Amino acid sequence: MKQVHRAIFIFIFLNLLTCFVLHPEGGTMAGKVKWVTDIEKSVLINNFEKREWVQVTESEDWNFYWMSIQTIRNVFSVDTGYRLSDDQMVNHFPNHYELTRKDLMIKNIKRYRKDLEKESSPLAEKDENGKYIYLDFVPVTFMLPADYNLFVEEFRKNPSSTWIMKPCGKAQGKGIFLINKLSQIKKWSRDSRTSTFVAASSGKEAYVISLYIDNPLLIGGKKFDLRLYVLVTTYRPLKCYMYKLGFCRFCTVKYTPSTSELDNMFVHLTNVAIQKHGDDYNHVHGGKWTVSNLRLYLESTRGKEVTNRLFDQIHWIVVQSLKAVAVNASPSLTSSTANDRILKYNLINDTLNIVTPNGDIPDCRWNRSPPREAMGNYQVLYDEEQAQSENAERDLRSRSGQSLGSKGSKGSAGVRPAAATWK
Amino acid sequence: MEDGTDVSLSIAQIVQRLRGSHLHSQLERQAKDCLHRPEIKLESLKEDVRSFLRASGWEKRLQNAVYRELHVQLPQCHPTAPAEHLKEPLAYMRKAQASWEKRVLKSLNSMSTELGVPLARMRPAGEQKDLTNKWNEMGTDEPDLSRFRPVYAPKDFLEVLISLRNPNHDSSEDMTVKSHWGLIQVPLNIRDIPQLRQAYSELNLNNGQLGIDDHAHVHPDLFENNYVHIGKKVVVEQDSAAAQQYSRRGCPTGLRSDLWALILNSTNQPQDVMHYEQLKAGVIQHDLLVDYLIYKDVKLTASNDDYYFVFEDFLYQVLLCFSRDTAVLEHFKYNSATPPKSYVHGKVGNEEFAVLYPPNGVIPFHGFSMYVAPLCFLYNEPSKLYSVFREMYIRYFFRLHSISSSPSGIVALCLQFERLLQAHLPQLFYHLRQIEAQPLRIAFKWMVRAFSGYLSTDQLLLLWDRILGYDSLEVVAVLAAAVFAFRAENLMEVTSLASAEAVLADLSTLKVMPLIQIFLFATAI
User: Fold this and answer.
1) How many whole angstroms from its chain centre is CA A283?
2) Is pLDDT at A5 greater than 50 in this prediction?
3) Mean pLDDT (whole number) for A207-216
4) CA B66 distance to own-chain centroid
5) Gene3D superfamilies from the entry (chain B) (predicted)?
6) Using an 8 Å Cβ cutoff, are B431 and B492 in contact?
7) B309-365, pLDDT tens digit by residue?
């Protein structure tokens, strides 16, 4: 697969993302942007129409194609794929599955950490218990059936622990379940004797199993997760933006770590798709809170410093994940409530404003950072180019006699100050 | 010399209230224990003990307790004035309140009879056990609430206020056209803008405020950082009076829960926790009809709210306990309302068998749970949340649904709202009146709830900072008028009550402090 080009637009969610690829060939066309989509979602179509872009079909000359997963696979598959021209953008990165498939995500993070260790990067520093200080953001995880024996070894160290099984290739909470006994995953022990190659390529039976965190932060006694939107406009150097209006999704049923509730998926999983079918699902607010509500609550109950540190760490994790992997897949564009529809419409609007400034036809040579006014509700998460130029300055200064302190080397690893906010 | 007698009377009252309190016994114990200390000398015993109490923070705690008593103290009155004058000096107000109460109680009693649900009932053992297990998730319970209706809604109460008349006041004497424009027709003394400017001087345009000068585009060094620094010192000092003064310009989000607890003197001591646990035991033991009203109210209001749905279970835990808390009865000494009395079956009229119902004397109405909901953003420990709410209720919220002449009472707030609008936006007021869209009909529901559920939470908390800071609900009326002023242009275009309601339906994007500041300090008078 040809290496990523200069101007790539990647659009990601915490574990999903979408990428736009420009191909460095051909010329630009004058006139309105021509768009195609095979996803009938109003938040997309309304945004295209508002810009007076022209809708065309797949077989015609198009500039902008918002594709479903299946279409993306075809475009980038070895057999049926085709090259994009200079003025074409699509919304998925070729190896998009590197992030949405959970086993690949884990592999990438583990490999990334090893790579950093090999280059003696201070980011890979470990504490006295052997835990990564800065890169410990994934719980202990194994791939099944490949790592079954390794998993059993770990399980036996804490036989009362709970683990969560997630199928590699599914989303929206499908197929996830919890276990606290080895007998519950007997099936994967049988299969471990078959070759890992067979299991991996079938895709269906592959799972990741992670240590379940049974003391999550609860609000109002309920568990929640975060849905954040991150936009990446170039991968090398890494430039990414976080949408300020992410949201939290709450479980409708009270959280309890009690083992009798392990089967009750409404308690443990926060995916809207699952919560929607619970008795208590409310269609007015959809069990969701804005991230600013979360911030207000945390600042009020825990204090501002702790809250700032939390959000810094979240941003850190996002950037490190991006560096570890290329990303993929389709964000949910289905809106569950009126508020949700408005959010997603504005999200797409702000996104399009960044990737097609002034509504211009895509041009792979474009690689500027957008001015602040054009960012809408996005804020800069990480700008590697800027970081590198600041780094060069600092290197100059440090070479003149100052010690590096806790900042360490930048380069591809990025900046991670130990205590202060990392901006 | 009259002032001197007033002060000594005040002191005597406060001493009497604090005598025998837990704080009193703690102070005594501290004083006794400190006698062992080397710095305490026999020849200067009194001064040394006092110094010790000051240095160890006990004097400050006593100061805060005294400060708290000042807030709930009965107004000074003629020594032979009857108790009811302390509740409400004006006879016609007392009468109106009494007849309103009768109506409410009648409604409650008939609901009880119609539905066959007793006002109170002991729970069988099985049910008690169930409830104990489900205490933290009562929200998942689905009792059949369809038969229950709220006892009253704010609009019912508004009709009563509109019909209030002072029999001693011949309004025909004062026949300026404007004074008859509004719905409230009683002559209470309310402040105009020049007086408000003086009273709320901390809010003027020259002073930094939270809610304005902490905006993202303003550099924090200009105001915010220094203000937060001062706030931290106030918290360390543990001084109620300082916290109250500080709160006038807003509380930083990270310090607000501590500051409010200080202002309200909610210290969450072990005895407070124990008191809460006792209330909880009461809830488990017996079931009250008002419990269903609470369930219904929470399900109808907070559960559907974008911000507060998360805290549904906390609301039950607070409100069910609140209904059973007889300590709340204290506040009826200065509340124009009187707790409803009920009689044991068959003994109506026989005072020996009279029972206050509910035990705390407060019958919840539609929207009541919204008084508690915003506090859930600040306190996540049930007994602390409870104690802060209770104090807020007996200092402020009760005034929003009882008929009285108090300047913080709902009648005065309504009148003030109308007068402010009439004085400064006469054209708008006249227009709305002509199309039969009396402004008070729209603003009333906001004021009864002190805007809870209408503003976004961060803005609401900034408003409540000022309620606490100025120890008055007046700012609620000012904000209501400021909202109308803000949307005046659109309101001038409407031609019906429904479209006026629509223009004012969504306040969730409003920033309260700029609105209040502009209305008070940038309006030409």
Assistant:
1) 26
2) no
3) 86
4) 20
5) Ypt/Rab-GAP domain of gyp1p, domain 3 (1.10.472.80)
6) yes
7) 999 999 999 999 999 999 999 999 999 999 988 777 777 777 777 788 899 999 999
Q: A256, A300, A336: best mutation site toward chain B, by most B Cβ within 10 Å? A: A300
Q: Does A280 touch chain B (CB under 8 A)?
A: yes
C-beta separation of B97 from B403 below 8 A: yes
CB neighbourhood size of B132 (10 A) = 12
Task: Give B82: exposed, middle or buried? Use CB within 10 Å, 0-12, 13-18, 19+.
Answer: exposed
For residue B94, which amino acid is it? Answer: R
CA distance A331 to A243: 14
3-class state of residue A8 by DSSP = strand
Q: What is the pLDDT of residue A401?
A: 45
What phi and psi, each to the nearest 5 degrees, are found at residue A179?
Answer: -135, 155
d(CA A121, CA A105): 21
Distances (CA, A) of A275 to A245, A286, A287: 21, 9, 8
DSSP 8-class letter at A371: P
Is residue A232 within 8 Å of residue A10, measured between CB atoms? yes
Tokens of A365: 């040579």
Helix axes B457-470, B253-263, angle to 10 degrees: 40
Check B310 against A289: CB less than 8 A apart. Answer: yes
Region B54-58: what's the mean pLDDT? Answer: 91
Q: Where are the domains of chain B?
A: 94-155+267-397
- Residue A187's pLDDT is 76
Q: B303 to chain A: which residues are within 8 Å by CB?
A: 282
Interface test with A, best of B137, B229, B255, B310 (most A CBs within 10 A): B310
- The CA distance from B324 to B286, in Å, is 10
Rg (CA), chain B: 24
Q: What angle do CA A271, A272, A278 make, to 5 degrees?
A: 100
Q: Alpha-carbon distance B483 to B451, whole Å? A: 11
Which tokens belong to A369?
């950072």
SS3 B54: helix
Q: What angle do CA B401, B102, B169 make, to 5 degrees?
A: 65
User: In chain B, helix, strand, coil percent, each to 5?
Assistant: 65, 0, 35
CA distances from A399 to A333, A384, A416 (A): 50, 21, 20
CA-to-CA separations, A102 to A105, A106, A229, B67, in angstroms, rounded: 5, 6, 18, 59
The SS3 assignment for B16 reads helix
Amino acid at residue number A36: V
> Which positions in chain A touch B139 (Cβ < 8 Å)?
254, 280
The answer to whether B376 contacts chain A (CB < 8 Å) is yes
CA–CA–CA angle A5, A6, A12 (5° rounding): 80
Of A220, A284, A305, the CB nearest to B304: A284
